C-alpha cells in the first residue's frame, strides 16, 4: 500500500493553445479540468494501474469541494481533512509544440490545528503502508522541515518515505534520510548550486543529494529522460514521445511507475519512463492506464549505463 500526502493540492486547469503571445487574446483549442497536486497525481496513476494507494488531502472552499468530487468520481481511496482556507487553482498553458507554461498559486496557510489534523490523518493511513509519498510544495507558513519530520517519524516505524518537492522543503528533508527523492532538473540545480548541462552533471548532482542524505535519487530530466542513482548502480533512460500533449503530472506518473515496479534498478527505471512517456502523450494531467503504458513499453523505452558526456537540451 502506498500512501500519498498532498499538503497543497489544486484544481488544475490545462488550456491547449497553438502558441503563446504575451499581451494577445488567445483562443484556446481545448481546456481540461483535473484534480491536482503531486501526491494526488501519484495516487491517481497508481489507481489507474490497480496498485493500492490512499491519498491524504486537505481541502477547503468551493474549489476544495470540487477537487474532492473529481477525486471521488475517479474512485480514489482518500482521507480528506477539511480546512478553512480555499484549495488553490493552478493553470497550465500547453502549446502545440509540447511546451507547457504553468502558473501555480501559493495555496492558503494551514493553522497549527489543521496541520496537526493532517499529520494525524497521515499517521493513521500509513499504519499499513510500505511507502509514504510526501509530494509537492508546502502551503505558506508551513515549516520547511515538515517533510523532514515525517521522514524521521516513519523511519522509526520502518516505513519508506519518498519526497518530491523543491526549495527549502527539499533541502531540509535530505538530512532526514528519505528512501527516495525525485527532483527534476531545476530542483537538482537548486539543491546543489550546480549548472546541469550534461548527463554527467545530473549524475554528479544526484550523487551530492545522496551525500546529503537521500538513499535513492530518481532525477527526471524532462524531454531528456531520467537518471537513477542508488547503492547498486547508476542508470540513464529515455522514452521519446512522438506527439507530446501535456507534460503536467509526467513526473508524478514517473514516481508512481517507479514505486509500482519495486523502486530498484534498471527495470524499475524503465517502467517509470514508460509511465511518464504515456502521461506526456495524454491531455491535461490525465494519468495513464495499463493500455497507454503497454503501448509505450513495447517499443520506445531505452535504458543504459549513464554516459557522462551526453549533452542535455539547453535550458530544459
Ligand atoms: N517533452 C517530453 N518528451 C518526452 N518525455 C518527456 C517530456 N517531458 C517530460 N517527459 C518525461 O516525463 C518525465 C518527468 O518530466 P519532468 O522532468 O518535466 O518532471 P516534473 O518537472 O517533475 O513534472 P511535473 O511536476 O509536471 O510532474 C521525464 O523524466 C520524461 O521521462
Ligand atoms: O506547486 P507544486 O505543489 O510544486 O506543484 C503543483 C502541481 O504543479 O504539480 C502537479 C504536477 O506535477 C500539478 O497537478 C499541480 O498543479
Classify the fold: give the CATH topology. UDP-N-acetylmuramoyl-L-alanine:D-glutamate ligase
CATH class: Alpha Beta
Catalogue the ligands: adenosine-5'-triphosphate, 1-O-phosphono-beta-D-fructofuranose
Largest sheet: 10 strands, mixed
Estimate what percentage of residues fall within beta strands: 15-25%
- The number of E-state strands comes to 14
Overall mean confidence score, pLDDT: 94
So, the CATH homologous superfamily?
Ribokinase
Question: What CATH architecture would you give?
Answer: 3-Layer(aba) Sandwich
* Element pattern in H and E: EEEHEHEEEHEHEHEHHEEEHHHE
Physical arrangement of strands within the biggest beta sheet: 5-4-1-8-9-10-11-12-13-14
Q: What is the subunit arrangement here?
A: single chain
- Termini separation comes to 34 Å
| CA gyration radius, whole angstroms | 18 Å
Tell me, briefly, the overall form: globular
Helix content: 25-40%
- Tally of domains: 1
Amino acid at each position: 500500500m502506498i500512501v500519498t500526502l498532498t499538503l497543497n493540492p489544486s484544481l488544475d486547469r490545462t488550456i491547449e493553445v497553438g502558441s503563446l503571445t504575451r499581451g494577445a487574446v488567445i483562443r484556446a483549442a481545448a481546456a481540461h479540468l483535473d484534480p491536482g497536486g503531486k501526491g494526488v497525481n501519484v495516487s491517481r496513476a497508481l489507481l489507474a494501474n490497480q496498485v493500492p494507494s490512499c491519498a491524504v488531502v486537505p481541502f477547503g472552499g468551493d474549489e476544495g469541494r470540487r477537487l474532492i468530487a473529481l477525486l471521488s468520481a475517479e474512485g480514489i481511496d482518500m482521507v480528506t481533512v477539511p480546512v478553512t482556507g480555499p484549495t488553490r487553482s493552478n493553470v497550465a498553458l500547453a502549446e502545440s509544440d509540447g511546451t507547457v507554461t504553468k502558473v501555480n498559486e501559493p495555496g492558503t496557510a494551514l493553522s497549527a490545528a489543521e496541520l496537526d489534523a493532517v499529520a494525524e490523518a497521515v499517521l493513521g493511513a500509513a499504519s499499513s503502508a510500505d511507502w509514504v509519498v510526501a509530494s509537492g510544495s508546502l502551503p505558506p507558513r508551513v515549516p520547511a522541515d515538515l517533510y523532514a519530520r515525517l521522514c524521521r517519524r516513519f523511519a522509526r516505524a520502518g516505513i519508506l518515505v519518498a519526497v518530491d518537492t523543491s526549495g527549502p522543503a527539499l533541502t531540509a528533508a535530505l538530512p532526514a534520510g528519505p528512501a527516495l527523492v525525485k527532483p527534476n532538473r531545476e530542483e537538482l540545480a537548486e539543491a546543489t548550486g550546480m549548472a546541469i548541462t550534461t548527463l554527467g552533471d545530473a549524475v554528479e548532482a544526484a550523487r551530492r543529494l545522496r551525500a546529503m542524505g537521500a538513499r535513492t535519487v530518481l532525477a527526471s530530466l524532462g524531454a531528456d529522460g531520467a537518471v537513477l542513482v542508488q547503492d547498486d548502480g547508476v542508470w540513464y533512460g529515455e522514452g521519446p514521445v512522438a506527439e507530446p500533449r501535456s507534460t503536467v503530472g509526467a513526473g508524478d506518473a514517473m514516481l508512481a511507475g517507479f514505486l509500482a515496479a519495486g523502486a530498484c534498478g534498471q527495470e524499475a527505471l524503465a517502467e517509470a519512463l514508460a509511465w511518464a512517456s504515456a502521461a506526456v502523450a495524454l491531455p491535461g494531467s490525465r494519468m495513464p492506464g495499463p493500455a497507454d503504458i503497454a503501448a509505450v513499453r513495447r517499443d520506445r523505452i531505452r535504458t543504459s549505463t549513464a554516459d557522462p558526456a551526453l549533452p542535455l537540451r539547453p535550458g530544459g
